[in-house]
Design brief:
heterodimer, A: 325 residues, mainly alpha, MetI-like fold, 16 helices, globular, B: alpha+beta, 15 helices, 19 strands
Chain lengths: 325, 536
């Protein structure tokens, strides 16, 4: 990897971040409505003084350019502002929600990758077989069902009718007296994880199956067969490794997306993660919080992309990042 | 491959089984807890986010804080931290006599200094909530139990401002005087004077409140109340059915019907909590035509709306804006007579006499200028709520009189603007906006801060009466003025009453009793309701 390329990559990432900050700022400020009109529409409608004071209180009365300059300076100084709703630093609010999102989305992402890769590679390897056809149809069905439908069905069947799992939340009421229990959190996390995994598996499956189909036709697979290697060995040592390459990018992006959370699943399970936080911040027009959330999203996506780029030479020694031709 | 696959399958099977067993074990333990407290399903942990001043008043829903007075449904006010109050003749000086045995949750005594401090602090910090007190010049405390508000101008609706929408909660001076920056202050104690003390919270999950044994008023019989945050309404209902929560507020009529007959669950109704009207834009054609508006007043089948939209949980209303069940003698019973009666023939006749005819024979009426009518009915949201469904029913109804209406759905943030460019909209407001002559200011030309009203309605005499009403404290005088204002509204018809809808609660009757005669201020379980409850 060339140092020059590394420098340019970092520079472009910084540029992307700066552009994103600007766009985010413009888009968020272009949205109609404000916090006061959402929480107290009757007061805001009837009493413009309330709006005037509100804008003065949170600095929205300043010219937009001044707000932007101040915002950019603050962001680069590590001050992402205070949430109107929570009265806390935006970063503190985001980090606390991010932890809860990670508890369900990280296992769901990893599980979906594991299951998707396993089933996808098998399906691609045995392309055209009855099993492949069956799995493919199942995956089409799974892919067509939205995550919130799974969430509702899981709550109804496993939570309500069978009583095996809680109906939502991340802790049982006894936590108020006994404090946090990791088992309790895990127990509450099961259904959201299952719902998310079911919704995410088809995407991984399709990519892995396609990638495997391309690999199966390669000359080195034919060579391996000619050498008399067993099918399992060819799959494990030759096909899978090569078919996995496109998955690296997908895994990085999928993991980066986890921080955005899942609005529907989090809402249905009353799971206080990033998805629900974003939805709420958008609903009540908590502008500093919204800006912080989008900034964090951008930052993580950029970092994930950089990490993918830089990790390629380690995964596939043939790939040389930054070298053309 | 086959051997490996089956081994993997077995491993997955064992893992799944182990987890299933572990999960079932934890589930059993969890089910044993939470017998004593009253568990209330809440849609958000709004109460514990930030601090009390960032939330906009504390009418009755915070449980921990109190205001000076609270609005009741009998047309008056209940004492809260004030036991009595009076004003001078022109409603410019308001004196509150405070309860003498109230203490803050940390044991400090409550005094009139806290009332003065609340006013001064809001103004000093220029918090948006201080706009509620903008008419107050200063507050004086002649003794520990008296607070006198001196207003800049007479304001008869001052008690309304103090009590709701959003109202002013009193904050403790000894705590807040050290809070320099209230915008960036996340409270974690919530020290108030209310009947319940904040004990602890689990972020976005539970808020635990315990009864305040030193409460100055009626002491709560429920010793512990827990707000359980369940963001989805359907999940709240499932939690009620499974026994995880004891009460769910503001449920839909369809859900209420599905719960009737469920073991251990009762459905209670608070009648007439929301008033719905058909609003008309008086500046846009053809609703700028008074005769057209008059015709529309006869084209509303209220019974049908109550049945279809509210499943019977609503009652037709025929009085001009104010609702008799809460506004009592403020309602002028003599207006509008039968001018709002459902009569499509009369509506057609009125339209025809006003020049709205189907001149080209296509089945739809044109305007007096022979131009096609462009009727817009603007609805906030996705149209799935009561307003949207009412608009659909009315659209169908109005086809019979040759009017083709387009329903336009709009986001809440753009609704105010879209309303200005429409012809029809549904005005749905809590009963608190229909319970006093002061609420008629809703139709004043420029309201009292210079903004146009929702209807672009303007009537000089009406504005004069409203100005007069604002400066008179005497109830009889105010009632007379209100009567004349209602006569003008009935004549001009900027809006037509449709119905008043009920608020529906579902609760576990096998655990708690005292759900009768519920009168929450808004739509959630509030302090007043909690004080009535006891174990079944």
């Amino acid at each position: 990897m060339r140092l020059e390329y590394l420098g340019w990559r970092v520079f472009y990432s910084f540029l992307a971040f700066a552009i994103s900050i600007t766009f985010t700022f413009i888009l968020i400020h272009a949205m109609p409505g404000d916090y006061l009109h959402v929480i107290l529409p009757s007061l805001a409608d009837k009493n413009p003084l309330a709006t005037e004071l509100f804008e003065e209180q949170f600095g929205f009365d300043k010219p937009l350019v001044d707000q932007y300059v101040l915002y950019v300076i603050n962001v680069f100084q590590g001050n992402w502002g205070y949430s109107i709703q929570y009265g806390q630093p935006v970063t503190a609010v985001i980090i606390s929600k991010l932890c809860w999102t990670m508890i369900i989305l990280l296992p769901a992402t990893l599980l979906s990758i594991l299951i998707g890769v396993a089933i996808g590679s098998y399906s691609g390897w045995s392309s055209g077989s009855l099993a492949d056809s069956f799995i493919f149809k199942i995956m089409i069905f799974l892919g067509a069902v939205p995550s919130y439908w799974w969430a509702i069905i899981l709550i109804l069947v496993l939570g309500f009718y069978l009583g095996l799992f809680p109906l939502g939340g991340y802790m049982s009421v006894r936590a108020l007296n006994e404090g946090l229990s990791y088992y309790d959190v895990l127990y509450h996390a099961v259904l959201p994880i299952v719902a998310l995994t079911l919704a995410m598996v088809p995407g991984v499956y399709y990519l892995m199956r396609t990638s495997m189909l391309q690999t199966v036709g390669q000359d080195y697979i034919l060579t391996a067969r000619c050498k008399g290697l067993g099918e399992l060995k060819i799959l494990q040592h030759h096909a899978l490794k090569n078919a996995m390459l496109p998955m690296v990018t997908m895994m990085a992006i999928e993991l980066a997306h986890t921080i955005m959370g899942s609005v529907f699943v989090e809402t249905i399970f009353s799971w206080p993660g990033m998805g629900y936080l974003t939805y709420e911040a958008l609903r009540v027009r908590d502008i500093p919080l919204l800006q912080g959330i989008f900034l964090m999203d951008t930052l993580i996506i950029i970092l994930a992309n950089m990490a993918t780029d830089f990790s390629y030479p380690f995964i596939d020694p043939r790939a040389e990042v930054g070298k053309i031709g | 491959m086959t051997i490996k696959s089956s081994a993997m399958g077995r491993a997955f099977g064992i893992l799944f089984l182990s987890f299933f067993v572990a999960a079932s074990f934890i589930g059993n333990v969890a089910a044993d807890s939470g017998e004593d407290p009253l568990v209330i399903a809440a849609s958000s942990s709004f109460f514990t986010q930030g601090n009390v001043l960032s939330k906009g008043g504390v009418p009755t829903g915070s449980f921990a804080y109190e205001g000076l007075i609270a609005r009741n449904r009998e047309g008056g006010y209940d004492g809260w931290l004030a036991k009595s109050w009076e004003s001078n003749d022109d409603a410019s000086i308001w004196t509150f006599h405070l309860v003498d045995n109230a203490t803050w949750h940390d044991g400090e005594p409550f005094t009139s200094e806290d009332v003065k401090f609340t006013h001064d602090y809001l103004k000093k910090k220029k918090l948006w909530l201080s706009s509620v007190l903008s008419k107050v010049d200063h507050v004086e405390c002649p003794d520990e139990n008296t607070a006198i508000f001196y207003l800049k101008t007479p304001f008869s609706a001052f008690l309304d401002s103090l009590s709701h929408c959003p109202g002013i909660g009193i904050i403790p001076k000894h705590i807040w005087e050290s809070v320099d920056d209230p915008d960036h202050y996340a409270d974690d104690k919530f020290i108030g004077t209310g009947p319940f003390k904040f004990e602890k919270a689990i972020s976005e999950q539970y808020v635990k409140l315990v009864a305040n044994e030193n409460y100055h008023g009626q002491k709560p019989q429920v010793k512990e109340a827990i707000l359980k945050i369940i963001t989805n309404k359907d999940s709240q209902i499932l939690s009620l059915r499974s026994g995880d929560v004891d009460v769910v507020s503001d449920i839909s009529p369809a859900v209420a019907k599905s719960l009737i007959g469920s073991q251990g669950i009762d459905v209670s109704v608070v009648p007439d909590t929301r008033g719905y009207e058909l609003g008309m834009q008086c500046n846009n054609s053809p609703t700028d035509n008074k005769d057209f508006r008059n015709a529309m007043a006869h084209a509303i089948n209220r019974e049908r709306i109550c049945d279809i939209v509210f499943d019977g949980y609503a009652h037709p209303t025929m009085t001009t804006f104010l609702m008799p069940v809460v506004a009592h003698d403020f309602v002028n019973e003599d207006v509008p007579g039968d001018d709002y009666g459902y009569d499509l023939k009369k509506a057609k006749d009125l339209l025809e006499s006003a020049g709205f005819l189907d001149s080209d024979g296509d089945g739809w009426r044109e305007g007096p200028d022979k131009e096609k009518l462009n009727l817009i009915f603007v609805i906030q949201g996705n149209g799935a709520d009561a307003s949207g469904r009412m608009a659909e029913v009315l659209k169908e109804e109005w086809k019979q009189i040759g009017l083709d209406v387009k329903i336009k759905l709009t986001e809440s943030e753009q609704y105010s603007e879209e309303r200005r460019h429409s012809n029809f909209f549904i005005s749905g407001m809590p009963y608190l906006m229909h319970d006093d002559a002061d609420d008629l200011s809703h139709f004043e030309c420029n309201s009292y801060f210079g903004q146009k009203n929702w209807y672009d309605f303007s009537n000089q005499r009406y504005n004069e009466l409203n100005e007069k009403l604002r400066s008179i404290a005497d109830r009889d005088e105010r009632r007379k003025i209100g009567y004349e204002m209602q006569e003008i509204l009935a004549d001009e018809v900027p809006s037509v009453p449709i119905c008043s809808a009920d608020l529906i609660f579902a609760h576990r009757s096998d655990r708690f009793a005292g759900w009768e005669n519920l009168t929450p201020l808004y739509w959630d379980v509030d302090t007043k309701m909690l004080l009535n409850l006891k174990r079944a």
